[in-house]
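ok, trying the design again with the full structure, not the truncated one.
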């Protein structure tokens, strides 16, 4: 008999099909005593289906053990900066799975989907209030898609102004998330990179020098990807508008300023939000995410379709803005994610959201102070949502790279942070604890990183092959991304 030991050495080497014993079952199927079959004899299956033959206990343990091999936000601290994984409250899932929401067909008559539509309308109003930008489309399916929507809206507005032909440049800081320049390029603009000043903010003199009648927009991330406030952004906004260009906010980091500062009040014309970062929804990983786009009165006619509006008859409907850039995807956006964000927004209210941003900032600064001196901190000033250290000392003195540090953190029981971003920080280690981690978790993470800094000094070799404790060690990451092996193979031949 095969004894199932989920934690045994060969676990994962065999599939459920090769485990268990003939005749063993996970469920008892009652014996059918009615008429034998209505199928013609020739169509009856004679050979075995070759299903896994395991008892229910074995099967549940098998899958539970497999699931535990993933590190998720429900397993522990997940300090990814920028891509931000924070705890997803289970009440969000409960709300989104209510049959009235979950079973609604996207093509249901709108009069019969008023509950869902009104919920989306209230979410729209909430996001407008929080950003100070009164018009919102919930349609984009990710932050990056919200960005594309915003830049296409600017394109359409410039076209209507008759200025699209000369305005072919978008200014983007060199600390920006890669999606910013990629979006500008996808929309057909040339990207001009703006360097970061010594204090980690935009180089204002450079912006002033670059602003002319060839600039369509400036894309700025607030707070920026160094976790820092963009000093003087209000004055820059005035200069940008005086030059006839638009100011775009990458609002992915709203979680640091929610309930305190509004993009509209700072002078931004359009912003996208990442609901996974600020409103506790799952990220989606390019799948079912949501990146609403919010804008000023001037850009409202160009919002992507649909927007949610309330008619004079009191009915809520999907509508197409007058000069809409069109649809970004089928149907109405990722409603399941939008509902989760709504649940979060309503559960906390404005005071709660303000408390969230305060806690997020406090946590990032706590981590900054705990790690101070153990790793280089190129922009050494109080931070907002995240803090970006550098592993350059470890590299220079011990030949240990940030990549090694990140992998070694797995052995210490944590998910690695974001690494090598923003590009302007050498050997960047970007950490974002988020507001959902308690102080003890932040201390434990800091202790692990301090222990790793000591290991780098004492025993750099242990770092180079890490992780040692995970079922799969170092991957060939290029091949894993370019030529992924997505089907199970005999372990000897599995190379990814
Ligand atoms: C600053 C910033 N901008 C844009 C994005 C892109 O968002 P998404 O991954 O939802 O496309 C991210 C990622 O979370 C981000 O951190």
């Amino acid at each position: 008999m095969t004894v199932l030991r989920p934690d045994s050495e060969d676990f994962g080497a065999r599939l459920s099909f090769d485990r268990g014993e003939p005749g063993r079952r996970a469920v008892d199927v009652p014996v059918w005593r009615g008429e034998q079959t209505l199928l013609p004899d020739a169509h009856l299956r004679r050979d075995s289906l070759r299903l896994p033959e395991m008892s229910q206990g074995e099967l549940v343990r098998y899958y539970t053990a497999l699931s535990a091999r993933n590190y998720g936000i429900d397993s522990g601290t997940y300090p990814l900066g920028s891509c931000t994984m924070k705890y997803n409250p289970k009440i969000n899932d409960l709300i989104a799975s209510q049959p009235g929401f979950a079973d609604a067909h996207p093509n249901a008559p709108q009069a019969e989907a008023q509950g869902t539509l009104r919920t989306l309308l209230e979410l729209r109003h909430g996001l407008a209030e929080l950003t100070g930008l009164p018009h919102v489309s919930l349609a984009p399916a990710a932050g990056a898609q919200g960005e594309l929507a915003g830049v296409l809206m600017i394109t359409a507005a410039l076209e209507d102004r008759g200025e699209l032909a000369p305005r072919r440049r978008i200014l983007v800081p060199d600390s920006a998330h890669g999606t910013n320049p990629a979006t500008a390029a996808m929309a057909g603009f040339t990207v001009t990179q703006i360097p970061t000043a010594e204090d980690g903010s935009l180089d204002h003199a450079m912006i002033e020098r670059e602003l002319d009648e060839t600039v369509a927009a400036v894309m700025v991330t607030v707070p920026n990807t160094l976790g820092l406030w963009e000093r003087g952004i209000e004055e820059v906004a005035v200069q940008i508008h005086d030059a006839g260009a638009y100011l775009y906010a990458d609002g992915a980091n709203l979680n640091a300023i929610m309930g305190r500062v509004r993009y509209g009040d700072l002078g931004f014309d359009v912003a996208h939000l990442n609901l996974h970062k600020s409103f506790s929804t799952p990220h989606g990983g390019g799948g079912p995410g949501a990146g609403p786009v919010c804008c000023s009165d001037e850009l409202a006619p160009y919002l992507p379709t649909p927007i949610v509006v309330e008619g004079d008859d009191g009915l809520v409907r999907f509508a197409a803005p007058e000069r809409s850039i069109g649809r970004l995807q089928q149907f109405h956006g990722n409603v399941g994610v939008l509902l989760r964000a709504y649940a979060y927004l309503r559960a906390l209210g404005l005071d709660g959201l303000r408390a969230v941003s305060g806690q997020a900032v406090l946590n990032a600064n706590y981590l900054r102070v705990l790690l101070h001196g153990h790793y280089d901190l190129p922009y050494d000033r109080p931070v907002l949502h995240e803090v970006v250290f550098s592993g350059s000392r470890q590299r220079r003195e011990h030949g240990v790279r940030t990549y090694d540090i990140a992998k070694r953190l797995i052995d210490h029981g944590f998910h690695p942070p974001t690494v090598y971003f923003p590009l302007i920080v050498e050997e960047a280690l970007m950490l974002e604890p988020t507001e959902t981690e308690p102080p003890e978790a932040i201390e434990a993470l800091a202790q692990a990183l301090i222990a790793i800094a000591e290991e780098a000094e004492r025993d750099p070799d242990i770092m180079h092959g890490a992780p040692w404790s995970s079922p799969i060690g170092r991957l060939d990451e290029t091949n894993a991304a370019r030529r992924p092996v997505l089907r199970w193979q005999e372990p000897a031949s599995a190379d990814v």
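Keeping the full-length input from now on. The pocket of pyridoxal-5'-phosphate is lined by residues 82-83, 142-144, 177, 179, 221, 225, 250, 252-253, 274, 289, 291 (CB under 6 Å).
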